[in-house]
Amino acid sequence: MAVSQPSRSRDLDKLLLRPGHLVGPTFEPGPELREGMKEIVKVLVVGAGGLGCEVLKDLALTGFRNLDVIDMDRIEVTNLNRQFLFRLEDVGKPKAEVAAKRVMERVNGVNITPHFCRIEDKPDIFYSDFGIIVLGLDSIEARSYINKVACGFLEYDSDDNPRQETVIPMVDGGTEGFKGHARIIIPGTTPCFECTIWLFPPQVKFPLCTLAETPRNAAHCIEYAHLIKWNEVHGRKSFDPDNPEDMQWVYLEAVQRAELFGIPGVTYSLTQGVVKNIIPAIASTNAIISAACALETLKIISGCSKPLSNYLTYNGVEGLHIKVTEFVKDADCLVCGPGVLIELEKSVTLKKFIDQLEDHPRLLLTRVSVSYGRKKLYMQAPPELEKDTRSNLDIPLFDLMNRVSRDTINVNGMACKGDKKQSCMRILRIAFKGVDGIADIDMAGGA
Questions:
Q1: Any idea which fold 208-275 has?
Q2: Which of 176, 229, 236, 338 has its CA 20 to 30 A from that of 375?
């Protein structure tokens, strides 16, 4: 007598088709919920590396059918030991495209759209099309950028409560060797990435005198070639860590430097790791963190269980250690908070408003551009737009805002952080003296 095989969605059905005691307030079990996840919800996976490959596979097997994946990298031989969607014949091909193809070959009915580009190449409106964003990134800068874009869509009501229709949740995963984390970010409710930026330790920096005069290990030789020798030889040509020819040049220079001082251990893989600040990845850690990310994505979208609250850490160095920590949202966060309140006279021109932003003690912005709704009020670049919008600088901001039926202004600029300028996205609240109501201003930009 033939024994029927259990359905692949058997365990998922137990979560989505039955009521429970730990479900979210909006959970309504039934086939409609399961089909809605398949047909309606769009999920964006950012990153198609070691963690991204696992996340893409797990989300497809969890029942999500409309997925997008974005990654700017091409496959390298060194990726093959842990990025299981790739084969030797894929070396040199875009990660996003190959990962999407392989998952669609193995999971029936899933549709994955790949995007082979930088995350900054996509306009903000691209990210607004997704119900949730899952991050499988390896850099603080990339996480910060996506966080600021997603929080840029957030709007608050008159009581400073987030408007739920403007919230795009994020699930962030990260791994370093045997360690990893998974966290959820609900803009306006949980801490955003900027609220907890202090969690990340400062990057290790070597004194230039050590690199130039007394190198003691392989990393010193590599950083000498990268930070000192490159500029001596190439002048103004900037080093591109994603260009194999540039990386090969640094590697060969580092080898020569190491031989001169009798220092062993310089390899091409180590050169990549030092220059790009890469920590060796372990496949099992990626699988564990990916499973946590996929589960949290399912819980947030379906409400089948209460989501993580709100930061999970995993440590597999000695046995198995998992801990959940609840971090608190920064009420004064310039990215996800209600915003800095600025009071203006109705007569203040757009130019004077921009000058105030540059002098504001909490903002300290430079090269500010302003758009309101779909209308560009003033743009620093490109030159054609600057010329077209220059005439608005002498018009009162109040008049410009009244010409567009919208309450949100986008302000782009560069903010100083320490000794360098970084991308910024800020929310301001504008109150005009003698006028009831407050207008929200979203500030976004890049260095």
A1: Arc Repressor Mutant, subunit A (1.10.10)
A2: 338
CB of 54 closer than 8 Å to CB of 290 = yes
- Distances 25 to 19, 22, 41, 160, 307 between C-alpha atoms, Å: 12, 9, 19, 21, 12
Q: Which of 404, 366, 370, 408 is nearest to 386 (CA)?
A: 370
Quote the pLDDT of residue 403.
47
Report residue 398: phi and psi, to 5°.
Answer: -60, -45
Residue 434, sorted as left (phi over 0), alpha (psi -120 to 50) or beta, turns out to be left
Hey, where are the domains in the chain? 10-200+281-325, 208-275, 340-444
Looking at residue 404, what is its pLDDT?
42
Sequence-ordered list of residues with C-beta below 8 angstroms from that of 30, at least 6 positions apart, any chain? 16, 17
Reported CATH class of domain 340-444: alpha beta
Tell me the CA distances in angstroms from 281 to 138, 176, 251, 286, 396, one per residue in order. 10, 6, 21, 8, 54
Type of residue found at 4? S
CA 16, 21, 27, 29 torsion-angle sign: positive
Contact 418, 447 (CB under 8 A): no
How many Å from the N-terminal Cα to the C-terminal Cα in the chain?
A: 68
Question: What is the model's pLDDT at position 380?
Answer: 77
State the pLDDT at residue 55. 96
What's this model's pTM, rounded to 2 decimal places? Answer: 0.74
Low-confidence ranges of the chain (pLDDT < 70): 1-7, 202-206, 278-279, 361-364, 372-374, 402-428, 436-447
Q: What is the DSSP letter of 227?
A: I
What is the C-alpha to C-alpha distance for residues 416 and 424, in angstroms, rounded to an integer?
9
324 HSE (CA, 13 A, CB side): 7
- Closest Cα partner for 286 from 77, 84, 70? 84
Give the separation between CA 52 and CA 48, rounded to whole angstroms: 4
Cα of 40 vs its chain's centroid, Å: 23
| 209 catalytically annotated | yes
**Residue pair 302/33 in contact by the 8 Å Cβ criterion:** yes
Q: Which of 53, 209, 221, 336 is catalytic?
A: 209
Q: Which fold has domain 10-200+281-325?
A: Rossmann fold (3.40.50)
| Model confidence pLDDT, tens digit, residues 50-64 | 999 999 999 999 989
pLDDT of the residue at 437: 57
Asked whether the beta carbons of 54 and 134 are under 8 A apart, the reply is no
